[in-house]
Structures are given as C-alpha cells and as structure tokens.
C-alpha cells in the first residue's frame, strides 16, 4: 500500500508524559538563530546534555559498540550491532543521516536510535556521517560530506542493494539531496529509505506550520527559525535544498513517519504527491499526537514505529499492517 496512512488510536501515557516534558522545555527563551555565536553555544550545551544521557545509558547494556572512523575524509561513527533480533543480511549497512537543524548532532542519542532500528532490521553495521555543521560550514558542505561517504561505500565494493538509508528531521533533507546527486551522477541507489519526521521544505510553506503552531510539543509557541544560517547564499526554495520541490524519479521506495501535531507534518504528507509524480513508491504514516522524531524515545508507539521501519528496511515493501 502506498499513500497516506493515519494511524488509529490515542497516545499512551509514555507519549503524553514526553509531550508534557517537551512543552515545559520549549517554554524557555527561544534560540536566536541569527547569531552564530548563540548557535555554537547552544550546540555545546546540547552536546553536554547528550553526553550526560550517554553516561546514564552506559549503566545498562547498549545494543552496539561504536568506533570513530573516517570515510573519504569525513569523520564517521561506525556501529557494530550486538545480538540483532532479525537474521543478519551479510554485508548490509544502514547509512544513518542524523538531524539536528543542520547545527548540532545529539550523536549519542542518534547512535542509539540508529542501532535500535538496525538491530530489529538484522543489519550488523551502521555508518553515521559526522557531516560539517552550520553556521561554520553552510550548504552544500553537509550534503557533500554525506555524498562522499555514500560514494566511498560503493567504491569500497559494497552493493547498492545492501545499503539502506534512514534519516531524521533536517537529516532527511540532506539524505534526499545526497541521493538525488548520486542519481544524477549515475551511481546505483540504495534499496530503501526511511524518513523520520522529515524536513523537506525549508520555505516552511506547509499548512501544519501554522495549524500546529501551539500544538507541537517541541517547536510550538515560537516562530520557526529561518534556516539562513545553513543556506548561506542558496534559496530555501531550491530543490537541492528542499527536496519536496525536486524531481524524485529513480529514487528507491520511501517510508515516512511523522506525528499529527508536528509543525513539519506536511513536509512528509506533501512528499506523497512529489514521489508519486516521479513514480517512486512511498508510504507516509501519521501517528496521533506524537512529538518530533518520536521514534527516538522508548514509549509504546516509538517501539512500534521502529519495528515498522525495521520491517520496511528488510523488505523495502509496505505489506505489513500498521501498529496502532
């Protein structure tokens, strides 16, 4: 089944508590994205929070081991998945393009999210490009780094059919841009792509931007930040920056998941028309009242969503019934 699936049901207590926590956190002073120093300072603060969470997680067993590597001159994190749930596909790799508004990483959180998906999908290796960040490096630096890593995996002898891609938030714009450039260079493309709460339209023209202006647990209550600190001199409407406006022909099947109250909800919904016009199979799942990148949490709906992503990455199909 392709198209849009509005998942039935009400959010459980774990999701509701997470939404409350996010709303409490967003009540703080909004970030001034016009000030490069403020962006960098915010990144350092978020990195400290992320590192603190990583120390707490180390008290329990993690589903991966990690090492720092370089691929094609780009710093990467490579994960070896321990005890995959599904049978492993020999040589398979998950290329995970992290989000973070183009200016920060939350790398430990993203490693855990990627590892959980890979573990259920039966993928023993995960590669996360640590692409260059804005405002120090503007478009197309981050996209260049992601493409360099993908190109190097192929040059190292990997079959494109053994590669799957997952990306969250701003990472989705980078991942789709990377694949469009790979296509235009004649490179073979991966088997499947999963997009979690994707950002695909940097012009913020979706109706949900206003409709969910107060309902979004993470981004509500404040104006959406203009992404000029990432774009440099590029236009937000450029299809190379906003893949919603691009010709997606030739791309592999796409699975998109987003929450109904997200301000970026329509960045996923409107991708159906773009993909369908290009003959690309796509399924968009809208989950009720889920926060941005809800798959990163550990409440019931997050686990169900990760399971669906893993099944899709294994089979590159939409044959399973949606979890409620």
From TrEMBL:
Stored InterPro entries:
AB_hydrolase_3, AB_hydrolase_fold, GDXG_lipolytic_enzyme
The protein in question is named Alpha/beta hydrolase
User: What is the top-level taxon of the source organism?
Assistant: Bacteria
Q: In its keyword annotation, does this UniProt entry include Hydrolase? A: yes
Q: Which SUPFAM superfamilies match?
A: alpha/beta-Hydrolases (SSF53474)
**In the record, what terms sit under GO molecular function?**
hydrolase activity
**Source organism of the structure:** Sphingomonas liriopis
Keyword annotations of the record: Hydrolase
Domain Alpha/beta hydrolase fold-3: start-end pairs: 94-295
Pfam families in the record, alphabetically? Abhydrolase_3 (PF07859)
């Amino acid at each position: 089944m392709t198209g849009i699936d509005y998942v039935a049901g009400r959010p459980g207590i774990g999701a509701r508590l997470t939404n409350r926590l996010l709303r409490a956190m967003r009540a703080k002073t909004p970030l001034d994205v016009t000030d490069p120093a403020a962006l960098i300072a915010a990144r350092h603060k978020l990195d400290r929070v992320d590192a603190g969470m990583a120390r707490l997680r180390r008290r329990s067993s993690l589903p991966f081991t990690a090492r720092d590597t370089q691929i094609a001159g780009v710093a990467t994190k490579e994960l070896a998945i321990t005890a995959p749930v599904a049978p492993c596909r020999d040589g398979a790799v998950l290329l995970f393009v992290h989000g973070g508004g183009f200016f920060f990483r939350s790398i430990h959180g993203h490693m855990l999210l990627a590892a959980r998906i890979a573990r259920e999908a039966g993928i023993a290796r995960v590669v996360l490009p640590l692409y260059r960040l804005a405002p120090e490096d503007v478009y197309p630096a981050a996209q260049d780094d992601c493409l360099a890593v993908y190109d190097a995996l192929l040059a190292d002898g990997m079959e494109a059919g053994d590669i799957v891609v997952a990306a969250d938030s701003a990472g989705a714009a980078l991942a789709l841009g990377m694949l469009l450039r790979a296509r235009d260079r004649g490179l073979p493309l991966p088997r499947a792509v999963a997009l979690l709460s994707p950002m695909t339209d940097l012009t913020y023209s979706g109706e949900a931007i206003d409709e969910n202006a107060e309902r979004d647990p993470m981004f509500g209550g404040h104006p959406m930040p203009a992404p000029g600190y990432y774009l440099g001199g590029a236009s937000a409407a450029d299809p190379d920056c906003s893949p919603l406006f691009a010709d997606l022909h030739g791309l592999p099947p796409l699975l998109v998941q987003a929450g109904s109250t997200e301000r970026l909800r329509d960045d996923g919904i409107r991708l159906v028309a773009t993909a369908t016009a290009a003959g690309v199979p796509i399924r968009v799942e809208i989950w009720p009242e889920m926060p941005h990148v809800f798959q990163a949490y550990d409440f019931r709906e997050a686990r169900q969503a990760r399971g669906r992503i893993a099944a899709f990455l294994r089979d590159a199909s939409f044959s399973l019934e949606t979890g409620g």
